[in-house]
Design brief:
Elements (H helix, E strand, L loop, with lengths): L1 H17 L5 H36 L1
Helix pairs in contact: 1-2
Length: about 60
């Protein structure tokens, strides 16, 4: 859990550095949206890899 808190704080700091006038609330929302976006991207990558592996196994 400490690693998660550390990463969240680092990312919030990065957002506030890029957008100095952003409120804490909006920065947190942006961080949450980015996290969900990353999760969806990783899920799509995983699905594609699984499909490639299944196809590879069928052709062997």
């Amino acid at each position: 859990m400490k690693a998660v808190v550390k990463l969240v704080n680092q990312q919030l700091d990065e957002i506030k550095e890029m957008l100095p006038t952003i409120s804490d609330e909006r920065a947190a929302i942006l961080l949450a949206v980015n996290a969900v976006s990353d999760q969806l991207y990783k899920a799509a990558e995983l699905k594609e890899t699984k499909q490639e592996n299944e196809h590879s196994n069928k052709t062997e």
